[in-house]
Amino acid sequence: MNGLPAGTYELRVRALYRNGGGVSNDGRKKYEDAEDKEQYPDANAVLFAKSGDNEWRSTVKSIYSLYATENSFTQCGTAWETDELDGSKYVTAIHYMNGTIDESEQKEGVTYSGHDEGSYPLDSRIATGEIDEEELEELVYYYPASMQGFYAACKKDANAYANSLTSLRKAMLRLVSASLLLLVVTG
């Protein structure tokens, strides 16, 4: 982007990152124990903007910051075909959580694939080993494991995954370039 007038600009993107493929209770604890959630030891995905010699960075939200206490979805379409007469799309395959769709509800011509809670493409399930003092049950958290989970969580709270970078210089900001760098370093 070139030629913007002086002012304050915000680069905003919906994103999250996770290290090395999945979530774990150890990863959750490491994140929760970090004093600075934005710069905890595994924070390695960065939102980046540059203007002239000035650079601004902000850590992209960790998947561990976005836990939920229930699944973000229990079923989703995974394949569609187009009706040749009217051009509408219809689902031909559905992934669902076992126990959420009775066999009598399944439509003919649709392939159904059942999955256990916590398995892909459903949200990852982390049993913390800690007890909720009000419910007297083990605390369980859910984290998006697929784009469908990410989409469902964004629908529930559009700002949950909002990452932003705002320039602190109101005068003389001429945004020459802005780019998003998502880097995942494993192991």
Notes on the protein architecture:
- It contains 2 helices and 10 strands.
- It has a 3-stranded antiparallel beta sheet, with no helix packed on it. Strands 4-5-6 form a 3-stranded mixed beta sheet, with no helix packed on it.
- It has helices at residues 25-33, 147-156, and strands spanning 10-14, 46-51, 54-59, 75-82, 89-97, 111-115, 124-132, 137-143, 162-166, 177-181.
- The two termini are 36 Å apart.
- Strand 7 (124-132) and strand 8 form a beta hairpin.
- The longest helix has 10 residues, at 147-156.
- The protein has 187 residues and is mainly beta.
- It is flat.
Please outline the helices and strands.
Blueprint: E1 10-14, H1 25-33, E2 46-51, E3 54-59, E4 75-82, E5 89-97, E6 111-115, E7 124-132, E8 137-143, H2 147-156, E9 162-166, E10 177-181
Parallel strand pairs: 5-6
Antiparallel strand pairs: 1-9, 2-3, 2-10, 4-5, 7-8
Distance between the termini: 36 Å
Arithmetic mean of pLDDT: 78
Class by alpha and beta content: mainly beta
Strand order of the largest sheet: 3-2-10
Shape annotation: flat
Low-confidence stretches: 168-187
Please bin the fraction of helical residues: 10-25%
How big is the Rg? 21 Å
Instruction: Report on the biggest sheet.
Output: 3 strands, antiparallel
Beta content: 25-35%
Can you count the helices?
2
Number of strands: 10
Order of helices and strands: EHEEEEEEEHEE
